[in-house]
Amino acid sequence: MGNTEYEIQQRFEVQVPPTKPFFHTLKSSLKETFFPDDPFKQFKKQPISRKFLLGLQYFVPILEWAPRYTFEFFKADFIAGITIASLAVPQGISYAGLASLPPVMGLYSSFVPPLIYAMLGSSKDLAVGTVAVPSLLITSMLGKEVNPHQNTKLYVQLVLATTFFAGVFQAALGLLRLGFIVDFLSHATIVGFMGGAATVVCLQQLKGILGLVHFTHGADLVSVIKSVFTQIHLWRWESGVLGCCFLFFLFITRYFSRRKPVFFWISALAPLTSVILGSLLVYFTHAEKHGVEIIGHLKKGLNPPSLSELETSFGSTHLMTAIKTGIITGVIALAEGIAVGRSFAIFKSYHIDGNKEMIAIGMMNIAGSCTSCYLTTGPFSRTAVNFNAGCKTAVSNIVMATAVMITLLFLTPLFYYTPIVVLSAIIMAAMITLIDYEAAIHLWAVDKFDFVVCISAYVGVVFGSVETGLVIAVAISLLRILLFVARPKTSVMGSISNSTTYRSIEQYPKANSVPGILILHINAPVYFANASYLRERISRWIDEEEDKLKISAKNDLQYVILDMSAVGNIDTSGISMLEELKKTIDRRCIKLVLANPGGEVMKKLDKSKFIDTVGQEWIYLTVGEAVDACNFMLQTCKPKTKAVESEAADDKV
Amino acid sequence: MGNTEYEIQQRFEVQVPPTKPFFHTLKSSLKETFFPDDPFKQFKKQPISRKFLLGLQYFVPILEWAPRYTFEFFKADFIAGITIASLAVPQGISYAGLASLPPVMGLYSSFVPPLIYAMLGSSKDLAVGTVAVPSLLITSMLGKEVNPHQNTKLYVQLVLATTFFAGVFQAALGLLRLGFIVDFLSHATIVGFMGGAATVVCLQQLKGILGLVHFTHGADLVSVIKSVFTQIHLWRWESGVLGCCFLFFLFITRYFSRRKPVFFWISALAPLTSVILGSLLVYFTHAEKHGVEIIGHLKKGLNPPSLSELETSFGSTHLMTAIKTGIITGVIALAEGIAVGRSFAIFKSYHIDGNKEMIAIGMMNIAGSCTSCYLTTGPFSRTAVNFNAGCKTAVSNIVMATAVMITLLFLTPLFYYTPIVVLSAIIMAAMITLIDYEAAIHLWAVDKFDFVVCISAYVGVVFGSVETGLVIAVAISLLRILLFVARPKTSVMGSISNSTTYRSIEQYPKANSVPGILILHINAPVYFANASYLRERISRWIDEEEDKLKISAKNDLQYVILDMSAVGNIDTSGISMLEELKKTIDRRCIKLVLANPGGEVMKKLDKSKFIDTVGQEWIYLTVGEAVDACNFMLQTCKPKTKAVESEAADDKV
Q1: Contacts 24+ apart (CB under 8 A), B547-550
Q2: In angstroms, rounded to a whole number, what is the distance separating the alpha carbons of residues B610 and A626?
Q3: Residue B189 structural domain
Q4: Which of A73, B68, B148, B491 is most open to solvent, judged by the fewest CB atoms within 10 Å of its CB?
């Protein structure tokens, strides 16, 4: 390694990035935090009238796409809308039961919210409706305070309040650009959580399938199993047989649809078919007198306004519970709606603005809570059917709402004889697909920590409660981030096939380490949480390297190069650590060299004067240059270094 | 860029690190988490008897260094020990007052714990004693439940229980290797927290200085100010004048010691001098009859055993509060003790094992709680005096304990006339140095976020309570880590002076971007918390780049290179994000290229088959190689790319 080469390569100094005024930095980092998608981009350099129009279109997207709507689109949307309506009616009734609400509220919820979403939503595929997990959550959280069967009126009022607060919370998250809170529900959390919730919902259906009258209010495995097996003498075989038959029917239709995607409608129409078949069966055999429970009278007519109910609930002593339930169910519903909307948008390659979607979903729930609807979002099953049926725009939601309206106006008496057990079977069949054990296996294969998160969520939901599972999973996910920072990976680097590229020896076992120089790669920002760890760990690396050199009787260790490429940031505790480290290794007559510190790090090292402590000449742009410089010094200045060492040794004695 | 060069450089494939069995990985990551300092290293390859001896020496370090102890050392330790004793007596009495305890307990606490620490501790400089902030915390937390003046016996019992649980918690943290919890108190948190606590303690001293009899139990600024100014008519000018004189004396001596470090003893002896002067003054002028409160009778004799008191307290209804107080004060005392011990160890370049120190401090508090002592640790002021007085080993603690013992046995009557106002002045003078406004200014200059943490801790302590301040500061510190991961920095890279080194254009404004290729650097692990952000942000970079290219009518954007050097890890949400990203940019006819993914990332990309999706041939060891390959493709395959693009365009229509 010649003098010339070393000097040529050293030309380029590591730079402190140009300083910017404080408020500029603050503004840009706030912008990155809250407006990463730059929603104002389109407003730039436009006249005011145009800005107003764009703003209106931003909040009410239908204004943007309606003028371009064609009859071709309508034909597609009409078919899709009718298809999802056939799913919406039985599902609506079933999920209302899950939420311990009058069945007709499930139908109400498929009328008003879809209309609102069609105006405000930006997804072309999302089909609006009620969902199982939040429905269950409502029962389990509110049911603890008010018995839904004994005190139905108060319970319904509280559910409306819950829906209202969920909507307000959702819209507020969107307006305050806090949509990223939903991101903290990781993929693994959602897999585990959904699986757990589906298990719990399935277990709850044992009540309907076995025709039990009394059932536990607990949603956990233990109390359900106890409730089922202490009542063996009350099981109704008629109900059980009917339930199993319909379950089988639903599974077989799904199996066919899965085999050939063209037959998606078989599985889409299966729930409605089951309801019709079941109702006819009960009507003709009078099975309702033999232990098969039926829905009974369904109120005819459109959604009654519920503003006064909502108002009454605000004075209730249970309002705090309603708010808490609203926030939790609101977040979960949001996570599902946004994840579903985004997945299908990626499929069709258009863009969805998460925060805008939150506002749309929030507004539809606020409107819903004033018109006797309960919590709605974009369920995966219904949206998938909508997509498969070839929907083009949100008009399919309008078509569905119209179909539900007609049902409400004229067809409710037809559901009188519909057996509850069929509804249970429909829920069970829908839920079992949510238990995604394949995803869990995939998590285990790819990322053990994600698997732990997933299983904790599952176990927490099944054995504890839905909230417990959620809290545990989120806590473990956050712990992972903290652990990543608290225990960053450090690794020794070596040169790849003697080039100037240096990489971790762990990843590239053939990389060659450089005699007399220890090159360490740090893998995370140097923060208070890892400063002492890094001090210990780096000292240990140095000790180990010196031991190794002692055994092989090679040169002494003279240089420690810290590769800072992956150190994204540093705080004052981190800088103190570096200062201490420098002192410690100076005493051991080892020189500290930095390679490739990033912009943020350089800024802070500069302001804290650590650059002067290390010396700008000991900070290099690449590890290669640093090694070359050290090698150059090793060859030319050896006697001097030795002298310093013996001086220092005197000092110690 | 010729074909040959491209092929030569492409030789080295990015490798998936060699797979290790699951339990091996688990073991090594648990080891890194809990045993980063490798404490078992010295035990390796030793016979059992030697292992036993080493183990004993590990837990009782005095066995290790006592045999090497010399008379030379003792001379130094004796002088240091006498010096710190002269500080320990007045400070002990003062801080006991701060904790609302009988003054003599402060002396007890400087007798037993230092002896225990001398045997178990590994620091050569730490001087053991009580500290102001935990003393204040004890008053404010326990005082809420039990009035220390009306129910002294119960209060003392609870303080002993608090000390016991603090000791148990400290020792448990050490034994369970959970010492890193202390690391979560960042430098900035401690600066703000200490400053706030010092402010609060100073405010409390207004009671003594102004000679007030009734005073608020609140520790916050508002209630203290209110308490002081509603009692203006009760202020005693004699007390005030005396207090100001002593404060002035203490400050002037400190000023001299600061000017010339050789005169450290002037400031070290000042508190004892003040006590003697104050006592003499009161004795001769009978000022106690003119509004100057005095200590009064101090019990003679050594520490009485307090096991039975401790036992009684375990049956108390306030036990939970004692446990809570113990844990909080225990952590704070630990943080101070360890930080102090470590700082001086670095000065003298020896090593301190944090977990071992925790066990030592914990044991000394457990022993203390059985012998009428309250919470002790290694206070900064006393340790600094010890260090300056030239202590060599922990024997200086034994000398101090002996001096305190003599005081307890024979000299307590001398403190009868000591005015309380002198003690207040001693506390105030000690506390004011803890308000480290220079450090706060430094934080502002170096790291704004740390400044926010520091100020929040300060404001929280001063206007809320000590716990509030601590919780807020820790929460903000953790939020910072989460924000770092949730909003990672992405930046465009360019080549440095046309070499193969690529760096962020933000840091090196002169770096040249490469036409047709967008190189993006990601600065943090790709986790669930940032997956959607990164998707949005990368799309925005691509949009902006395309807009720029459109305006300049240059080549289309053909390649996006993601520099993964700083991506320390990835989880399954992150992998899904990359998959979606690839789909999205594939549709835009842009090729995704990865550069330098690390070991962990490669492992997971491999297991999730994402490597196959991207193609191993599109993953490069360095950004330089990736750019060369893309440039090579741009020059040779242009027509083909264009064809693909127009095909895709057809597809879209």
Answers
A1: none
A2: 34
A3: 73-434
A4: B68
Contact between B599 and A506 using a beta-carbon 8 Å cutoff? yes
Contacts with B489 from chain A: Cβ below 8 Å: 568, 600
Q: Among the three residues A382, A404, A420, which one is the final residue of a domain in this structure?
A: A420
Tell me the CA distances in angstroms from B547 to A349, B522, B642, one per residue in order. 19, 22, 19
Residues of A whose CB is below 8 A from B575: 446
pLDDT at residue B294 tops 60? yes
Please name the member of A186, A504, A533 whose beta carbon is closest to the beta carbon of B599: A504
A25-61 pLDDT, tens digit per residue, is: 888 888 888 887 777 777 777 888 888 888 888 888 9
Does some domain include residue A347?
yes
CATH of the domain at A597: 3.30.750.24
Chosen for mutation from B572, B586, B651 (greatest number of chain A CBs closer than 10 Å) is: B572
The conformational region for residue A375 under phi > 0 = left, psi -120 to 50 = alpha, else beta, is beta
Is B187 in the same domain as B106? yes
Rounded-to-integer distance, Cα A374 and Cα A381, Å: 19
B604 neighbourhood in chain A, CB within 8 Å: 446-447
| Nearest residue on chain A to B20, alpha-carbon basis | A506
Residues in chain A where the model's pLDDT stays below 70? 1-11, 554, 637-653
From A222, A193, A217, A224, select the one nearest A142 (Cα to Cα): A217
**If you measure CA to CA, which chain B residue comes closest to A481?**
B482
Q: Which two tokens stand for residue B510?
A: 């002169």
Q: Is the pLDDT of residue B78 over 60?
A: yes
Search chain A and give the residue with CA nearest B539: A37
Selecting from A497, A576, A583 the residue whose C-beta is nearest the C-beta of B12 gives: A497
Residue B388, domain member (yes or no): yes
Chain A and chain B share a number of CB contacts under 8 A equal to: 239
Distance from CA of A183 to the nearest CA of B (A): 5
Is A174 within 8 Å of A359 (Cβ atoms)? yes
B475-504: average pLDDT: 89
Q: Distance between CA atoms of A393 and A80, rounded to whole angstroms?
A: 10
d(CA B177, CA B358): 9
Tracing tokens 């991961």 back to the chain, one arrives at: B485
| Cα nearest neighbour of B505 on chain A | A17
Cβ neighbours of A530 in B, within 8 Å? 183
Please give the pLDDT value at position B166: 96
Residue range B113-144, pLDDT digits in tens: 999 999 999 899 999 999 988 998 898 889 88
Contact B107, B87 (CB under 8 A): no
| pLDDT tens per residue, range B608-652 | 999 999 998 899 999 999 999 998 888 876 544 444 444 444 444
Domains in chain B, number: 2
B428 and B576 share one domain: no
Closest residue in B to A571 (Cα) is: B447
Judged by CB atoms closer than 8 Å, whether chains meet at B602 and A485 is answered as no
Q: Are B485 and B524 in contact (CB under 8 A)?
A: yes
Residues B117 and B250: their CA atoms lie apart, in Å, by 30
State residue A653's pLDDT score. 36
Residues shown for chain A: 653
Q: Is residue B444 part of a domain?
A: no
Confidence (pLDDT) at B652: 41
Residues 6+ apart with CB under 8 A from A559: A516, A517, A518, A590, A591, A593, A630, A633, A634
What's the pLDDT score for residue A330?
A: 94
| B402 lies in some domain | yes
Chain A contact probe: residue of B14, B503, B530 with most A CBs at under 10 A = B503
Highest mean pLDDT among A41-55, A280-294, B349-363, B563-577: B563-577
Whose tokens are 């900070």? That residue is: A619
